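Side project, low priority. Logging it here so it doesn't get lost.
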Amino acid sequence: MKLSIGISLLAVTVLLLAPPFPEAPAGFDNKTNGMVDDATHAADQAKFDETEALDDGLGPLYNAQSCRECHQNPTSGGPSQVTELRVGHAGPHGEFVNPEIPIARGTEVIKGRSLVNDRAICPNAAFPGTEIQERVPDSEKIRTFRVSLNVLGDGFVEAVADQTFVDLAKDQCKKNHKICGQVLYVPIVEAPGQTRVGRFGWKDQQASLLSFAADAYLNEMGITSRLQPDEVTNLCNTVAEPNDKTGPDGLSDIDHFARFIRATETPARDAQTAQTPKARLGAELFDKVGCDTCHVQTLTTAPAGTNLNGGTFTVPPALGGKQFHPYGDFLLHNVGTGDGIVQSMTEHYGKKMYQITWKNLSISEFNNTANKIRTAPLWGVRMHSRLMHDGASVTLLDAILRHRGEAEHVTQKFEKLKPAEKEALLEFLRSL
């Protein structure tokens, strides 16, 4: 009898001590998280790293020639110092209005996007007299830069159920009364009519990694695909649409990009720094002052077999039922750094997006995001030299002190810490 009770108590103790879900693999070693084999992952990375040329459909307007150009520190998929430029102006009622940017000596005007491409393929040998470089008109007084984001581990972010983010927002708004994250339902381009809670991009403009890949391929590299088949301009365009063709394996580049991101490991911590007494104290202070309200340490993915993205993606065992540590809630907040820009629907979801009825899509909710930015996940933050959405903060302390708005009271608590405590909190951040 005593032995039976002892065994039962031991079993309960083990159950309580055991982590509720397996840990997502972490590392910067270019290895797969298990969703595909290493050879497939390496082949997908080669597509991600590949430099695009004019024959591939590069441009006519673009910012970069490969995914890796913007996502590469310390390895493919990481963040970088590369920024993109966005502009616009305020309308008669204070609403955000996208710019109208003349090109080709004013014979064509680029509309329906806040992004301004920094590069163009013309004039060139084939089109020596065609001038299509975008330049910001003086009328566009709303201007900002956006730094390139980390995409490592985003397969786990995609695999988080919508309800998790909805519950996070409700909990914040109910308990805090000052910090209240916004959930934004966005179109799933590969599933017309379907929406999901946004989680990718500085404005949470994408929820699907395939939609995200197609968006970046068009708007950052000027390459059209089956999901984004329309060029920004047809001037200088010599490659038939869509530029991104299906290969012998039945996949196009955007499929390889999405699979590569989905199979990446999460950013690993600096284990040596994390175990120091100073960093461990900093972790406690991080929670004590309230940073963890938005920079949520741990999230859990939906079970394997769950259908996501309008039924176009099924969570595989490698991603399902895993816990990971992004130190972010992936919600939109006003922390005093908003740029006033509302993301363009046609830019991110295609020129025909208004011809489709999207479930749960609210234009007013999009308009409410003007001065909000997605919480920056802090995993891998030690790899960033330029912080916040615009890269204007170059030290961790600078970034903390910029937090106002919803985070004003948290910043005030940080400022009241003793110098040694502030340094401990910063050391904790340097371990992430």
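Brief comment: The first strand starts at residue 61 and ends at 62.
Revisit when time allows.
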